[in-house]
Amino acid sequence: MRRIPSDFLRRFRRHFPGPIILCGALESRAAESWLGSGLVDLAAFGVPFIANPDLPERMRRGWTLAQPKTDLFYGGGAAGYSDYPRFEGPA
């Protein structure tokens, strides 16, 4: 997984006073760390939301994430976009 290094974000933050939104190959722990340290203002999750309609709850509870069916992306139908179930585990 390719991720922007923290040292780059620190240098960028010093030179850019505006809001920084980071997206792509993010994991919840890294996003929380960067948000907490002020390196980014918003962490965005695109593909993980497609495969996990309950993504915030899964991240909050530490539940496993469903893997996206990328071979179905851009296929023209609902399959691979809106057919992922919510997490079903122990209550």
Keywords for this entry:
91 residues, mainly alpha, two-stranded parallel sheet, 4 helices, 2 strands, 35% helix, globular
Report what the structure shows:
There is one protein chain. By secondary structure, the protein is mainly alpha-helical. The chain has one domain (6-72). The protein contains four helices and two strands. The chain has helices at 6-15, 28-37, 47-51, 55-61; strands spanning 21-23, 42-44. It has a two-stranded parallel ribbon with strand order 1-2. Helix 2 links the parallel strand 1 and strand 2. The longest helix is centred in the first third of the chain and has 10 residues, at 6-15. The chain is globular and about 45 Å long.
Instruction: Give the tally of structural domains.
Output: 1
- Strand percent estimate: 5-15%
Find the count of extended strands (DSSP E, 2+ residues): 2
Helicity, as a percent range: 25-40%
What does the radius of gyration come to? 16 Å
What is the helix/strand order?
HEHEHH
What's the mean pLDDT score? 86
* Low-confidence regions: none
N- to C-terminal distance: 31 Å
Global shape: globular
Major beta sheet, strand line-up: 1-2
Tally of alpha and pi helices: 4
Q: How does the major sheet shape up? A: 2 strands, parallel
Structural class: mainly alpha
**Oligomeric form of this entry?**
single chain
